[in-house]
Amino acid sequence: MLTLATPPGLAFDPVLPTRDALLDAAVVRERLTDVLGIPVRASTRVRAKYRIVESLRVVYRLTLDGADRLVSARTFARDPGSGTWDPKLGCSWWTFPDDRRLRGLDRLLRPAGRLAGMAPGWATSQVVEYAPERSATFRALDRAGSTVGYVKAYPPGSGQGARFADRYEQVSDALRGTEVTAPRVLGRAADLLLLEEMPGLPWNGLSPADGNQALTAMGRAIATLHGLEVSRLAALPRFGRLQLGRVGRSADLVGLACPQLAERLGAVRDRLLATAPAEAGQDVLLHGDCHPKNGLVHRGRVALIDLDQAGLGPAAADIGSLLARLRLEPGGADLAGCFLQGYARIRPLPRDAVLRWHTAAALVAERAVRAVNRVHSAALAALPELIDDAADLLAKGAS
Questions:
Q1: Ramachandran assignment for 170, one of left (phi > 0), alpha (psi -120 to 50 degrees), beta (any other)
Q2: First to last CA, the chain
Q3: Would the pTM count as exceeding 0.85?
Protein backbone atom coordinates (compact mmCIF):
# COMPACT_ATOMS: atom_id res chain seq x y z
CA MET A 1 0.00 0.00 0.00
CA LEU A 2 1.27 3.47 -0.88
CA THR A 3 1.85 6.02 1.86
CA LEU A 4 0.37 9.35 0.78
CA ALA A 5 2.57 12.44 0.87
CA THR A 6 0.19 14.63 2.88
CA PRO A 7 0.83 18.37 2.39
CA PRO A 8 2.35 19.76 5.61
CA GLY A 9 -0.13 21.47 7.89
CA LEU A 10 -3.27 21.01 5.77
CA ALA A 11 -6.26 19.61 7.63
CA PHE A 12 -8.34 16.78 6.22
CA ASP A 13 -10.97 18.14 3.82
CA PRO A 14 -14.27 16.24 4.26
CA VAL A 15 -15.64 17.61 0.98
CA LEU A 16 -12.53 16.45 -0.94
CA PRO A 17 -11.52 13.18 0.76
CA THR A 18 -9.28 12.16 -2.17
CA ARG A 19 -7.34 15.45 -2.17
CA ASP A 20 -4.07 14.00 -0.90
CA ALA A 21 -4.25 11.04 -3.29
CA LEU A 22 -4.68 13.41 -6.26
CA LEU A 23 -1.67 15.39 -5.08
CA ASP A 24 0.52 12.29 -4.78
CA ALA A 25 2.49 11.64 -7.98
CA ALA A 26 2.98 7.94 -7.21
CA VAL A 27 -0.76 7.36 -6.71
CA VAL A 28 -1.56 9.28 -9.87
CA ARG A 29 0.95 7.29 -11.91
CA GLU A 30 -0.67 4.05 -10.78
CA ARG A 31 -4.24 5.27 -11.32
CA LEU A 32 -3.59 6.71 -14.79
CA THR A 33 -1.95 3.52 -15.93
CA ASP A 34 -5.30 1.84 -15.14
CA VAL A 35 -7.65 4.64 -16.23
CA LEU A 36 -5.92 5.50 -19.51
CA GLY A 37 -4.78 1.98 -20.26
CA ILE A 38 -1.28 3.29 -21.05
CA PRO A 39 1.87 2.39 -19.08
CA VAL A 40 2.95 5.56 -17.27
CA ARG A 41 6.67 5.48 -16.44
CA ALA A 42 6.70 8.67 -14.34
CA SER A 43 4.39 11.49 -13.29
CA THR A 44 5.32 14.98 -12.11
CA ARG A 45 2.83 17.44 -10.68
CA VAL A 46 3.31 20.80 -12.40
CA ARG A 47 0.31 22.70 -11.06
CA ALA A 48 -2.42 22.52 -8.44
CA LYS A 49 -5.33 24.86 -7.67
CA TYR A 50 -7.06 23.93 -4.43
CA ARG A 51 -10.21 25.67 -3.23
CA ILE A 52 -10.85 24.63 0.35
CA VAL A 53 -14.00 22.49 0.78
CA GLU A 54 -14.84 23.18 -2.86
CA SER A 55 -12.59 21.78 -5.61
CA LEU A 56 -9.12 20.71 -6.69
CA ARG A 57 -7.57 21.01 -10.14
CA VAL A 58 -4.22 19.39 -10.87
CA VAL A 59 -1.93 19.14 -13.89
CA TYR A 60 0.61 16.34 -14.28
CA ARG A 61 3.32 15.75 -16.82
CA LEU A 62 3.40 12.05 -17.66
CA THR A 63 6.42 10.25 -19.06
CA LEU A 64 5.26 7.59 -21.49
CA ASP A 65 7.19 5.43 -23.92
CA GLY A 66 8.65 7.90 -26.39
CA ALA A 67 6.77 11.02 -25.32
CA ASP A 68 5.66 13.29 -22.49
CA ARG A 69 2.03 14.24 -22.08
CA LEU A 70 0.10 16.74 -19.96
CA VAL A 71 -3.04 15.56 -18.18
CA SER A 72 -5.38 17.50 -15.92
CA ALA A 73 -8.00 16.51 -13.38
CA ARG A 74 -10.89 18.24 -11.65
CA THR A 75 -12.71 16.86 -8.62
CA PHE A 76 -16.44 16.25 -8.88
CA ALA A 77 -19.06 14.70 -6.61
CA ARG A 78 -20.22 12.52 -9.52
CA ASP A 79 -19.40 11.82 -13.15
CA PRO A 80 -19.64 15.20 -14.95
CA GLY A 81 -20.18 13.47 -18.29
CA SER A 82 -16.96 14.72 -19.88
CA GLY A 83 -13.35 13.71 -19.63
CA THR A 84 -12.39 10.25 -18.37
CA TRP A 85 -14.17 9.54 -15.09
CA ASP A 86 -12.10 8.06 -12.26
CA PRO A 87 -14.49 6.78 -9.56
CA LYS A 88 -11.71 5.93 -7.08
CA LEU A 89 -10.35 9.49 -7.02
CA GLY A 90 -13.68 11.23 -7.64
CA CYS A 91 -12.32 13.21 -10.57
CA SER A 92 -12.37 13.44 -14.34
CA TRP A 93 -9.14 13.37 -16.35
CA TRP A 94 -8.44 15.28 -19.54
CA THR A 95 -5.44 14.72 -21.81
CA PHE A 96 -4.08 18.00 -23.15
CA PRO A 97 -5.14 19.73 -25.38
CA ASP A 98 -8.61 18.50 -24.32
CA ASP A 99 -10.04 20.70 -21.55
CA ARG A 100 -13.44 21.02 -19.89
CA ARG A 101 -13.82 24.73 -20.73
CA LEU A 102 -10.88 25.77 -22.94
CA ARG A 103 -12.08 24.52 -26.30
CA GLY A 104 -10.00 24.33 -29.45
CA LEU A 105 -6.54 24.39 -27.89
CA ASP A 106 -5.42 21.86 -30.48
CA ARG A 107 -5.79 24.49 -33.22
CA LEU A 108 -3.09 26.56 -31.52
CA LEU A 109 -0.56 23.76 -31.65
CA ARG A 110 -0.71 23.68 -35.48
CA PRO A 111 -2.30 26.99 -36.52
CA ALA A 112 -3.70 27.37 -40.02
CA GLY A 113 -5.49 29.95 -42.16
CA ARG A 114 -6.43 33.24 -40.51
CA LEU A 115 -5.19 32.04 -37.15
CA ALA A 116 -1.66 31.45 -38.46
CA GLY A 117 -1.79 34.84 -40.15
CA MET A 118 -2.05 36.63 -36.79
CA ALA A 119 1.76 36.40 -36.54
CA PRO A 120 4.02 36.24 -39.61
CA GLY A 121 5.58 32.80 -39.86
CA TRP A 122 3.59 31.21 -37.03
CA ALA A 123 3.73 27.46 -37.70
CA THR A 124 3.68 25.61 -34.35
CA SER A 125 3.32 26.31 -30.63
CA GLN A 126 4.78 25.14 -27.33
CA VAL A 127 2.86 25.20 -24.05
CA VAL A 128 4.36 27.68 -21.58
CA GLU A 129 1.72 27.67 -18.85
CA TYR A 130 -1.56 25.80 -18.48
CA ALA A 131 -4.26 26.57 -15.90
CA PRO A 132 -7.09 24.08 -16.59
CA GLU A 133 -10.46 25.66 -17.41
CA ARG A 134 -8.98 29.17 -17.04
CA SER A 135 -6.16 29.94 -19.50
CA ALA A 136 -3.30 28.53 -21.52
CA THR A 137 -0.18 30.36 -22.71
CA PHE A 138 1.79 29.20 -25.75
CA ARG A 139 5.08 30.25 -27.34
CA ALA A 140 4.32 30.80 -31.04
CA LEU A 141 7.14 29.46 -33.22
CA ASP A 142 8.07 29.68 -36.88
CA ARG A 143 9.27 26.67 -38.87
CA ALA A 144 12.86 27.27 -37.73
CA GLY A 145 11.81 27.19 -34.07
CA SER A 146 12.21 30.92 -33.47
CA THR A 147 9.68 32.72 -31.28
CA VAL A 148 7.29 35.03 -33.13
CA GLY A 149 5.03 35.87 -30.17
CA TYR A 150 3.10 34.54 -27.21
CA VAL A 151 -0.50 33.35 -27.38
CA LYS A 152 -2.94 33.42 -24.48
CA ALA A 153 -6.17 31.44 -24.75
CA TYR A 154 -9.22 31.97 -22.53
CA PRO A 155 -12.60 30.22 -22.15
CA PRO A 156 -14.97 30.72 -25.13
CA GLY A 157 -17.63 33.29 -24.39
CA SER A 158 -15.63 34.96 -21.64
CA GLY A 159 -14.54 37.87 -23.83
CA GLN A 160 -11.25 37.93 -21.94
CA GLY A 161 -9.12 37.92 -25.07
CA ALA A 162 -10.60 41.19 -26.32
CA ARG A 163 -10.76 42.74 -22.84
CA PHE A 164 -7.14 41.96 -22.00
CA ALA A 165 -6.02 43.08 -25.47
CA ASP A 166 -7.44 46.53 -24.71
CA ARG A 167 -5.57 46.53 -21.41
CA TYR A 168 -2.22 45.62 -22.97
CA GLU A 169 -2.65 48.19 -25.73
CA GLN A 170 -3.43 50.94 -23.23
CA VAL A 171 -0.42 50.18 -21.06
CA SER A 172 1.94 49.73 -24.01
CA ASP A 173 0.83 53.03 -25.57
CA ALA A 174 0.99 54.91 -22.25
CA LEU A 175 4.58 53.72 -21.63
CA ARG A 176 5.80 54.85 -25.04
CA GLY A 177 8.61 57.38 -24.67
CA THR A 178 9.73 56.05 -21.28
CA GLU A 179 12.53 53.59 -20.45
CA VAL A 180 9.85 50.96 -19.74
CA THR A 181 8.01 48.86 -22.30
CA ALA A 182 5.13 46.37 -22.35
CA PRO A 183 4.14 43.83 -25.01
CA ARG A 184 2.22 45.11 -28.02
CA VAL A 185 -0.83 43.23 -29.24
CA LEU A 186 -0.14 41.44 -32.53
CA GLY A 187 -3.57 39.86 -32.84
CA ARG A 188 -6.76 39.35 -30.93
CA ALA A 189 -10.05 37.50 -30.85
CA ALA A 190 -12.83 37.15 -28.29
CA ASP A 191 -11.01 34.30 -26.54
CA LEU A 192 -7.48 34.75 -27.85
CA LEU A 193 -4.64 37.22 -27.45
CA LEU A 194 -1.33 37.26 -29.35
CA LEU A 195 1.48 39.36 -27.84
CA GLU A 196 4.91 40.28 -29.12
CA GLU A 197 7.98 38.68 -27.57
CA MET A 198 9.89 40.99 -25.25
CA PRO A 199 13.70 40.87 -24.90
CA GLY A 200 15.47 40.36 -21.59
CA LEU A 201 15.72 38.06 -18.59
CA PRO A 202 14.04 38.13 -15.17
CA TRP A 203 16.16 38.68 -12.05
CA ASN A 204 16.44 34.97 -11.23
CA GLY A 205 18.00 34.31 -14.64
CA LEU A 206 20.89 36.67 -13.90
CA SER A 207 23.99 36.55 -11.71
CA PRO A 208 23.51 37.75 -8.09
CA ALA A 209 25.12 41.13 -8.84
CA ASP A 210 23.07 41.59 -12.00
CA GLY A 211 20.01 40.40 -10.08
CA ASN A 212 20.37 43.28 -7.64
CA GLN A 213 20.65 45.71 -10.55
CA ALA A 214 17.58 44.09 -12.10
CA LEU A 215 15.57 44.74 -8.92
CA THR A 216 16.69 48.38 -8.98
CA ALA A 217 15.56 48.60 -12.61
CA MET A 218 12.30 46.88 -11.66
CA GLY A 219 11.74 49.53 -8.99
CA ARG A 220 12.19 52.28 -11.60
CA ALA A 221 9.84 50.47 -13.98
CA ILE A 222 7.02 50.06 -11.44
CA ALA A 223 7.43 53.69 -10.36
CA THR A 224 7.18 54.73 -14.01
CA LEU A 225 4.00 52.67 -14.38
CA HIS A 226 2.56 54.25 -11.24
CA GLY A 227 3.41 57.69 -12.57
CA LEU A 228 1.25 57.36 -15.69
CA GLU A 229 -1.75 59.67 -15.95
CA VAL A 230 -4.65 57.33 -15.19
CA SER A 231 -7.30 59.83 -16.28
CA ARG A 232 -6.15 59.26 -19.86
CA LEU A 233 -6.81 55.52 -19.63
CA ALA A 234 -10.15 53.89 -20.30
CA ALA A 235 -11.98 52.28 -17.40
CA LEU A 236 -9.87 49.67 -15.65
CA PRO A 237 -10.96 47.35 -12.82
CA ARG A 238 -10.11 48.19 -9.25
CA PHE A 239 -7.42 45.99 -7.72
CA GLY A 240 -9.19 43.96 -5.06
CA ARG A 241 -6.86 41.46 -3.38
CA LEU A 242 -5.76 43.82 -0.58
CA GLN A 243 -9.13 45.38 0.11
CA LEU A 244 -10.28 44.85 3.69
CA GLY A 245 -13.05 42.34 3.07
CA ARG A 246 -10.80 40.22 0.86
CA VAL A 247 -7.95 40.28 3.37
CA GLY A 248 -10.25 39.16 6.18
CA ARG A 249 -11.73 36.31 4.12
CA SER A 250 -8.25 35.21 3.08
CA ALA A 251 -7.12 34.91 6.68
CA ASP A 252 -10.24 32.91 7.54
CA LEU A 253 -9.77 30.52 4.61
CA VAL A 254 -6.14 29.83 5.46
CA GLY A 255 -7.17 29.26 9.07
CA LEU A 256 -9.81 26.78 7.91
CA ALA A 257 -7.22 24.88 5.86
CA CYS A 258 -4.58 25.05 8.64
CA PRO A 259 -6.53 25.07 11.92
CA GLN A 260 -3.35 24.89 14.02
CA LEU A 261 -2.62 28.43 12.77
CA ALA A 262 -6.18 29.78 12.99
CA GLU A 263 -5.72 31.64 16.28
CA ARG A 264 -2.56 33.40 15.13
CA LEU A 265 -4.15 34.21 11.77
CA GLY A 266 -7.21 35.60 13.53
CA ALA A 267 -5.06 37.95 15.58
CA VAL A 268 -3.24 39.19 12.46
CA ARG A 269 -6.56 39.57 10.63
CA ASP A 270 -8.05 41.65 13.44
CA ARG A 271 -4.94 43.83 13.54
CA LEU A 272 -5.03 44.35 9.78
CA LEU A 273 -8.68 45.36 9.86
CA ALA A 274 -8.13 47.71 12.79
CA THR A 275 -5.05 49.47 11.41
CA ALA A 276 -5.88 49.81 7.70
CA PRO A 277 -4.56 53.16 6.42
CA ALA A 278 -7.33 55.71 6.17
CA GLU A 279 -5.55 57.29 3.22
CA ALA A 280 -3.22 55.07 1.18
CA GLY A 281 -2.65 57.66 -1.53
CA GLN A 282 -4.06 58.54 -4.93
CA ASP A 283 -5.01 55.70 -7.24
CA VAL A 284 -2.35 54.71 -9.77
CA LEU A 285 -2.10 52.14 -12.53
CA LEU A 286 -1.05 48.92 -10.77
CA HIS A 287 0.67 45.97 -12.40
CA GLY A 288 -1.50 43.68 -10.28
CA ASP A 289 0.94 40.75 -10.28
CA CYS A 290 4.07 42.56 -9.21
CA HIS A 291 6.91 40.13 -8.80
CA PRO A 292 10.44 40.12 -10.24
CA LYS A 293 9.75 37.46 -12.87
CA ASN A 294 7.31 39.84 -14.54
CA GLY A 295 10.05 42.34 -15.31
CA LEU A 296 12.47 41.43 -18.12
CA VAL A 297 15.72 43.41 -18.05
CA HIS A 298 17.60 44.09 -21.28
CA ARG A 299 20.36 46.67 -21.67
CA GLY A 300 19.12 48.65 -18.69
CA ARG A 301 15.52 48.75 -19.92
CA VAL A 302 12.65 46.82 -18.39
CA ALA A 303 9.72 45.15 -20.12
CA LEU A 304 6.71 44.60 -17.85
CA ILE A 305 4.87 41.41 -18.85
CA ASP A 306 1.81 39.47 -17.67
CA LEU A 307 -0.51 42.44 -17.26
CA ASP A 308 -3.77 40.47 -17.10
CA GLN A 309 -4.39 41.64 -13.52
CA ALA A 310 -3.53 45.31 -14.06
CA GLY A 311 -5.95 47.72 -12.42
CA LEU A 312 -6.32 50.81 -10.28
CA GLY A 313 -5.38 51.16 -6.63
CA PRO A 314 -2.82 52.62 -4.20
CA ALA A 315 0.84 52.33 -5.17
CA ALA A 316 1.55 50.51 -1.90
CA ALA A 317 -0.48 47.53 -3.14
CA ASP A 318 2.06 46.71 -5.88
CA ILE A 319 5.05 47.55 -3.69
CA GLY A 320 3.77 45.58 -0.70
CA SER A 321 3.01 42.61 -2.94
CA LEU A 322 6.58 42.50 -4.23
CA LEU A 323 8.11 43.04 -0.78
CA ALA A 324 6.00 40.18 0.59
CA ARG A 325 7.27 37.89 -2.18
CA LEU A 326 10.88 38.76 -1.35
CA ARG A 327 10.70 38.31 2.44
CA LEU A 328 11.24 34.55 2.27
CA GLU A 329 13.74 34.67 -0.61
CA PRO A 330 17.46 34.18 0.14
CA GLY A 331 18.94 37.68 0.22
CA GLY A 332 15.42 39.09 0.08
CA ALA A 333 16.22 42.10 2.28
CA ASP A 334 18.96 43.25 -0.10
CA LEU A 335 16.74 42.68 -3.13
CA ALA A 336 13.92 44.64 -1.49
CA GLY A 337 16.32 47.48 -0.72
CA CYS A 338 17.41 47.59 -4.37
CA PHE A 339 13.79 47.73 -5.54
CA LEU A 340 12.86 50.53 -3.12
CA GLN A 341 15.97 52.49 -4.08
CA GLY A 342 15.06 52.24 -7.76
CA TYR A 343 11.44 53.23 -7.13
CA ALA A 344 12.45 56.27 -5.07
CA ARG A 345 14.57 57.58 -7.95
CA ILE A 346 11.41 58.07 -10.02
CA ARG A 347 8.68 58.96 -7.53
CA PRO A 348 8.30 59.19 -3.74
CA LEU A 349 7.63 55.98 -1.86
CA PRO A 350 4.42 55.67 0.18
CA ARG A 351 4.69 56.34 3.92
CA ASP A 352 6.48 53.63 5.86
CA ALA A 353 3.38 52.71 7.91
CA VAL A 354 1.35 52.33 4.72
CA LEU A 355 4.01 50.11 3.16
CA ARG A 356 4.18 47.94 6.28
CA TRP A 357 0.41 47.44 6.30
CA HIS A 358 0.24 46.50 2.62
CA THR A 359 3.20 44.14 2.94
CA ALA A 360 1.56 42.41 5.92
CA ALA A 361 -1.75 42.24 4.03
CA ALA A 362 0.01 40.72 1.02
CA LEU A 363 1.70 38.12 3.25
CA VAL A 364 -1.77 36.95 4.29
CA ALA A 365 -3.99 37.56 1.25
CA GLU A 366 -1.40 36.58 -1.37
CA ARG A 367 1.49 34.54 0.06
CA ALA A 368 -0.44 32.50 2.65
CA VAL A 369 -3.42 31.95 0.35
CA ARG A 370 -1.15 30.90 -2.51
CA ALA A 371 0.69 28.42 -0.28
CA VAL A 372 -2.64 26.72 0.39
CA ASN A 373 -4.25 27.12 -3.04
CA ARG A 374 -1.18 25.91 -4.94
CA VAL A 375 -0.35 23.30 -2.25
CA HIS A 376 3.34 24.29 -2.18
CA SER A 377 4.92 22.08 0.49
CA ALA A 378 7.84 24.44 1.20
CA ALA A 379 5.52 27.46 1.43
CA LEU A 380 3.10 25.55 3.67
CA ALA A 381 5.95 24.57 5.98
CA ALA A 382 6.96 28.27 6.15
CA LEU A 383 3.45 29.52 7.00
CA PRO A 384 4.10 29.95 10.74
CA GLU A 385 7.13 32.13 9.96
CA LEU A 386 5.14 34.09 7.38
CA ILE A 387 2.30 34.80 9.83
CA ASP A 388 4.73 35.89 12.54
CA ASP A 389 6.40 38.14 9.96
CA ALA A 390 3.07 39.82 9.21
CA ALA A 391 2.39 40.30 12.91
CA ASP A 392 5.84 41.82 13.42
CA LEU A 393 5.33 44.26 10.53
CA LEU A 394 2.04 45.42 12.02
CA ALA A 395 3.56 45.80 15.47
CA LYS A 396 6.41 47.93 14.10
CA GLY A 397 3.95 49.98 12.09
CA ALA A 398 2.09 50.84 15.30
CA SER A 399 5.21 51.78 17.26
A1: alpha
A2: 55
A3: yes
Query: What phi and psi, each to the nearest 5 degrees, are found at residue 185?
Result: -85, 120
- Rounded to whole angstroms, the Cα distance separating 368 from 136 reads 25
Q: What does the pLDDT look like over 167-189, one tens digit per residue?
A: 999 999 999 999 999 999 999 98
2 pLDDT exceeds 60?
no
Contact 151, 126 (CB under 8 A): no
Can you tell me the distance from the alpha carbon of 309 to that of 288, in angstroms, rounded to the nearest whole number? 5
- Give the largest CA-CA distance in the chain: 64
Task: Report how far Cα 167 is from the mean position of its chain's Cα atoms.
Answer: 18
Kind of pairing, strands 180-181 and 301-304?
parallel
pLDDT for the residue 154: 96
Q: Helix-strand-coil percent breakdown of the chain, rounded to 5?
A: 40, 20, 35
Average pLDDT, the chain: 92
pLDDT (tens digit per residue) in 290-338: 988 999 999 888 999 999 999 999 999 999 999 999 998 888 999 999 9
Q: ∠ CA 105-108-111 to the nearest 5 degrees?
A: 140
The Cα angle at residue 316 between residues 313 and 320, in degrees rounded to 5: 120
Distance CA 286, CA 308 (A): 11
**Which three-class secondary structure state does DSSP give residue 46?**
strand
Task: Report CA 322 to chain centroid distance, whole Å.
Answer: 13
Separation of alpha carbons 136 and 151, rounded Å:
8
Tell me how far apart the alpha carbons of residues 317 and 301 are, in angstroms, rounded to a whole number. Answer: 23
Tell me the backbone φ, ψ of residue 332, rounded to 5 degrees.
Answer: -60, -35
